[in-house]
Backbone:
């Protein structure tokens, strides 16, 4: 699976988190928002991890297919570049982390810079704060009890704004790195299944009753 595919999966999870988080925040019930928001973030982390495992397993399958083609043809340059980009590699996993975190990180960085520069224009500051709040809403419940407002750059809020965008992509990366082990388990399970099937077929053949030939 390519970095683009992993990015799409990560964006889907983040958009759903933002939507649900905003709905909870708009209820005005802070305790509910914090409790459910944290549980949702934990659940999203698990889903991201599982998504990464699936991506890593699929990417390992692509890698094995490429290896078989190269071994058969002995012409690595004939491999489709698009297929090669979908093969498993640590660099693909690392790129997926930064790709998944880029949008939220840039939005928050712009808002922090504008706050530090004391931008006086109300409209640009309002837009920057709104976009930053939307991007940070999935992680904001972690510090919302101690940081009730989004208008001051306290250290805890800055940490969430800068680290938060990397949390779910990091979970996805952790799952992606499990790809080779999962592929080995799959291959082993398939080989064991074939061996058991052959063993059962031999037993069945041995147990087949002998047909008595008619006497002439």
Residues:
């Amino acid at each position: 699976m390519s970095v683009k595919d992993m990015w799409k999966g990560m964006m889907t999870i983040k958009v759903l988190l933002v939507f649900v988080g905003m709905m909870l925040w708009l209820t005005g019930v802070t305790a509910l928002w914090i409790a459910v928001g944290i549980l949702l973030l934990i659940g999203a982390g698990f889903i991201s991890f599982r998504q990464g495992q699936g991506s890593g397993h699929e990417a390992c399958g692509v890698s094995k297919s490429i290896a078989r083609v190269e071994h058969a043809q002995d012409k690595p340059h004939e491999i489709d570049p698009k297929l090669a980009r979908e093969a498993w590699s640590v660099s693909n996993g690392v790129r997926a982390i930064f790709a998944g975190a880029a949008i939220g990180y840039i939005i928050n960085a712009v808002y922090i810079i504008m706050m530090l520069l004391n931008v006086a224009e109300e409209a640009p500051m309002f837009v920057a704060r709104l976009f930053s709040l939307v991007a940070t809403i999935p992680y904001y419940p972690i510090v919302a009890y101690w940081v009730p407002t989004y208008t001051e750059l306290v250290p805890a809020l800055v940490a969430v704004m800068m680290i938060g965008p990397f949390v779910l992509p990091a979970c996805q990366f952790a799952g992606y790195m499990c790809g080779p082990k999962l592929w080995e388990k799959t291959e082993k399970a398939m080989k064991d299944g074939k061996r058991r099937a052959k063993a059962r077929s031999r037993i069945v053949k041995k147990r087949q009753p002998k047909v008595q030939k008619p006497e002439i």
